[in-house]
Amino acid sequence: MNKKVAFITGITGQDGSYLAELLLAKGYQVHGLKRRASSLNTSRIDHIYQDPHQQDLPLFLHYGDMSDSLALCGLLQKIQPDEIYHLAAQSHVAVSFEAAEYTANVVALGTIRLLEAVRLSGLNCRFFQAATSEMYGKVTSLMQNEDTPFRPCSPYAIAKVGAYWTTVNYREAYGLFAVNGIMFNHESPRRGETFVTRKITRALAAIALGQQQCLYLGNLDARRDWGFAADYMDAAWRMLQQDTPSDFVIATGVQHTVREFLQCCAASLGISLSFSGSGLTEIATVLHCDPARTPALQPGAVILRIDPRYLRPSEVPSLCGDATRARTVLGWQPATDFTALCQMMMAHDLAQAKRQALLEANGYAR
Ligand code: NDP
Ligand code: GDR
């Protein structure tokens, strides 16, 4: 039997790397869109990408950009995918306030470009769009499902609402198997370093080893529903295997504050924290720590302060997903809970920080 062919935009990102692994394990031929950068940007997939001169691996990378319709059309005609996973985006909410037009171009228009390329190529393929809980924005309901109205409050979220409705429109207007996965926050050791979870785990690792004194964050009260990225890519794949196309919320159904994420990660290093002050003066102080595990750290050390530069012009206060449909229709459920996620990310970043320290101590790194 011929291998199924998948095309992933955003393959070099967090989700793209997990999805590529999953599809290769299922026997797919995988093609990924990679944008040109002045330095290598494939670190998340280097472990699965091998020199095509050496080995016949079913993973192919193609240069292109979501701003380039002609390139997208040409690639689809060449690749002839059975399934498209559209993950490419300027995905940072805070950055979108500073790069609103660019974000709209890549996220909203980029999705139109890709769907038009599918339509004009006459392809009979299935299409997954990476929609987001950010579309709910300043929502008032405690939990959000597929019927909850959108109230976006950032350029990123507004662009994603456009991409969401474009996907629905191509399904209704042209009968395309096109679906939105409304994914709540999902993280991993491969998460971009400037998202709050990874920023916390990297900083705590450096603080534990005495390489950094203090971490600076913005809003600690924000509540998010955090899951593990690989679980969410499993849901994306399942969505494209259904008999009929429809949209699904993908979430754990459990929410925590940013403060709780920090506490949980610190606890996994044997550090307990005490929070005092409020608003911009809030700090976190080390209450207890284990000298055997974190010899550089002393009780009483202030390891967290607030920096107003990390506050957003408009914030999403609280999100928590109701993934009942995904559980019942897709048979999907997250395999990794909040504590396991914190421990996984913390262990990864501690090991990475130790490795770096060893290299530096032996003169092999800066
Ligand atoms: P990342 O930021 O890690 O990855 C984004 C990917 O898009 C990267 O491969 C990036 O390339 C690529 N990209 C960015 N701009 C362009 C462009 N102009 N042309 C082509 N490629 C581009 O995001 P995630 O993996 O975390 O998220 C994947 C998708 O899911 C995104 O659409 C995101 O908005 C959405 N999403 C994510 C959630 C999450 O919690 N992670 C939750 C809900 C939705 P490069 O590597 O070169 O930067
Ligand atoms: P989010 O993720 O905006 O939810 O978007 P992020 O990790 O950036 O922020 C989560 C919450 O933490 C608060 N916060 C900080 N955030 C960052 N980045 N840096 C800080 O220093 C900081 N301090 C507090 C934020 O204000 C926010 O409330 C992510 C992205 O992956 C999107 O692409 C995706 O669509 C959504 O998740 C679901």
From TrEMBL:
Enzyme Commission number(s) of this protein: 4.2.1.47
Cofactor dependence: NADP(+)
InterPro entries referenced in this protein's UniProt entry, alphabetically: GDP_Man_deHydtase (IPR006368), NAD(P)-bd_dom (IPR016040), NAD(P)-bd_dom_sf (IPR036291)
Reaction(s) catalysed by this chain's protein: GDP-alpha-D-mannose = GDP-4-dehydro-alpha-D-rhamnose + H2O
Secretion signal span: none
Enzyme superclass (EC): lyase
Any one GO molecular-function label of the UniProt entry: GDP-mannose 4,6-dehydratase activity
Xref: NCBIfam families: gmd (TIGR01472)
Family per record: Belongs to the NAD(P)-dependent epimerase/dehydratase family. GDP-mannose 4,6-dehydratase subfamily.
Name of protein: GDP-mannose 4,6-dehydratase
Species name: Rheinheimera tilapiae
